[in-house]
Amino acid sequence: MHISNKAISLLAAVGLMAVQLLTPVAAYAETDSAAADQVEAAATDDNFGSENPYLSEFSGSSFRYENGNLREDIEPIATFSIPQWPDNATGWGIDVSYAQGQIDWAKVKAAGCDFAILRCGYGSGGNDSQFKKNVEGCKANGIPFGVYLYSYAWDAGIAKQEADWTLKVLSGAGVKPSDLALPVYFDLENEVGNPSHPAYGKPAGVDGNGNYRVIEGGVAAFASIASSYCSVIEGEGYKAGVYANLNWWNNYLSASDFNSWDRWVAQYNSTCDYAGRYSIWQYSSRGTIDGISGAVDVNWWYGPEFGGSNGTDSVGNLVSYEAHVQNIGWQPAVFDGAISGTTGRNLNLESLDVNLGTGVGFGEIEIRAHVSEIGWQDWTTGKAGTVGRNLPIEALQIRLTGDVAQNYDVWYRVHSADFGWLGWAKNGQSAGSQGFAKSSQAVQIVLTKKGAAAPGDTNSPFKARFLNIQTHVQNIGWQTPVSDGMIAGTTGRALHVEALKLNLGPGIESGGIQVRAHVSNIGWQDWTSSMAGTTGRNLAVEAVQIRLTGDAEANYDVWYRVHSSEFGWLGWTKNGENAGSEGYARSVEALQVSITPKGASAPGSTARPFVKR
Asked: Vertex 229, ends 228 and 230: CA angle to 5°?
């Protein structure tokens, strides 16, 4: 992690450092038995001892240091703050070590710090002289915190030693798993910092003789090192995570093993360009905050809000979800009502990974997506949608199974292109749009106690073309099809409808629709699923009946009304009843058809839908 110039001056004051500039200092206490005894004793001392310069990472090299000197090129822009929170960030915090000196944690809290990550030590024998005080300061002021250990490991065996040392330091500071709101992070960043060394710039540990030990074996070696450390930490009930800079994540820490632990990504930039999943982004080492003298590392957090539920009526951190977004890739996981995806950037949601949190109970959360060019996918646990095909998700359905379905409702809503935020749907209902070629761009998901109120407005969670209507009009011919609720035909032009076709749209998966027409000089025709009326005979349709069949009839009502010559718009009627006129020789000039959920209110007035002499 970062250290201020005053710490560099402190190291320069150590005479031995002057003769060791061409080789790394010893990383482990085994090189000096007296130093080892001092460090071991310090681990149980109330003040945790003073910083041992021979064991500090700032004596060696990382991506920010070269021969103990801070690299000026690592952060070319001064990013003291970001004026607007990044998409999906839910917290802002700092990470600190002894380099920040005595911290006034009450001022840090008052300044708006949501969380802190405290260095506990380095290697397999180094402790941070301020760790215990920083722990006490966070606890006293209610600041959620995690810890990190700077690693000098080059293989799994040394990583295990470092994990054992971490546990010893945590125990000495009285830090139990229940005390930590964030993980214990394994800080992987040490590199060969001596330009004259043949392995300059390569990831390396440091052995007990002060020699660099380049990490060999490719990505599998890094995975083995991390797994050795994290498994020991997790075995004692702590949550584990890994810290590294963007270059390390992209080139060394790319094995799937790292999906098992929280990622903390360092990139000093206005955006984080890591394409994988991460929980924290360290965006600058030049932050400032009241309560700390000098610069401090600053971070964005992408997990659950600290001490809140993201402004919804959710019951806790019960569901997590991650969006794969066009041109971005996988975003960090968010929780319980937080926004996943983007808004205002015209970027499609391409895939969504949804998982239940711990403590929910027995059961699963299942998801299916309606994808452009594919349609509705099958139900699945985990991911829905596609990756690498540039196909947007247009709609979602999410449901719970098992005991969890008996105890909770799952609510969700999507932000759809052009439509914006739609209403909340729940328990397998459709959310989004279908038949409009409008992509979903963001989503929110919440679990609530069974039967509890919705998190917000439930009006219009799903927009779909339930119906396509096409009319053949006098002197015009076949018009362009329109969807349900829209006017088919003409008004004010004294042109009669001669024929019509109705087809169910993609919003209704099964069932059918039938129509029959009362035609001038013919009377009532038979029910048909194709065309009603006539063409080429100049005969006007005077009345219609429309009905649904199969599953469509069981789940929906079909409402319709006509615009009749001289009578104008008549009232709405439904499900096979008469609409229009009979015995007056008055033609239908236009009509509207709307499909609604079974039992829903009529789209408008139902007065006088049919006139008969």
From this structure: 100
CA distance 564 to 556: 26
CA 435 from chain centre, in angstroms, equals 26
Q: Output the six-digit token pair for 597.
A: 């959920």
Strand partners, 548: 513
- Three-state SS sequence of 262-273: EEEEECCCCCCC
Three-state secondary-structure class, residue 175: coil
pLDDT at 67 (0 to 100): 52
With residues binned 3-state (H G I as helix, E B as strand, rest as coil), the percentages for the chain, rounded to 5, are: 15, 35, 50
Global confidence as pTM:
0.56
Model confidence at 464, in pLDDT bands (50, 70, 90)? confident
Query: What are residue 346's DSSP bridge partners?
Result: none
Tell me how many helices (H) and strands (E) the chain has.
Answer: 10, 43
**Is the pLDDT score of 17 beyond 70?**
no
pLDDT greater than 80 at residue 386 = yes
Q: Enumerate the β-bridge partners of residue 597.
A: 556
Listed residue (548, 531, 530, 528) closest to 595, CA to CA: 548
| pLDDT score, position 360 | 80
According to the model, what pLDDT value does residue 61 have? 57
pLDDT averaged over every residue in the chain: 84
pLDDT in the model for residue 514: 97
Encoding tokens for residue 567? 């009578």
Q: With contact defined as beta carbons under 8 Å apart, do 514 and 527 qualify?
A: yes
Query: What burial letters (b/e) apply to 162-193, b meaning 16+ CB within 10 Å?
Result: bbebbbbbbebbebeeebbbbbbbbbbbbbbb
Residue 158's alpha-carbon distances to 133, 292, 401, in angstroms, are 28, 34, 44
What phi and psi values does residue 46 have, to the nearest 5 degrees? -60, -35
Q: Which residue has the tokens 């380049």?
A: 214
At residue 500, the pLDDT reads 97
Q: Does the structure show a pLDDT above 70 at 490?
A: yes
Residues 314-328 have pLDDT tens digits of 344 788 899 999 998
The string of DSSP codes covering 268-299 is -SSS----S--SEEEEEEEE--TTSSS-EEEE
Cβ atoms within 10 A of the Cβ of 586, count?
Answer: 21
Phi, psi of 355 (to 5 degrees): -140, 145
Measured CA to CA, the distance from residue 176 to residue 189 in angstroms comes to: 26
Separation of alpha carbons 356 and 363, rounded Å: 9
Do residues 24 and 206 touch, judged by C-beta distance below 8 A? yes
Confidence label for 396 from pLDDT (cuts 50, 70 and 90):
very high
| 486 alpha-carbon distance from chain centroid | 36
Do the bridges between strand 497-504 and strand 487-489 make them parallel or antiparallel, or are there none, so unpaired? unpaired
What's the pLDDT at 64?
A: 59
Among 157-166, 322-331, 473-482, 578-587, which stretch is predicted with the lowest mean pLDDT? 322-331
At residue 493, the pLDDT reads: 96
Whole-angstrom distance, CA of residue 227 vs CA of residue 232:
8
Look at the alpha carbons of 534, 540, 543, 544 in this order and tell me if their dihedral is positive or negative.
positive
Distance, CA of 272 to CA of 265 (rounded, Å) = 8
> Angle at Cα 300 formed by Cα 312 and Cα 316, nearest 5°?
25
Let me know if 598 is exposed, middle or buried by CB neighbors in 10 A (0-12, 13-18, 19+): exposed
At 202, list the tokens. 């390569």
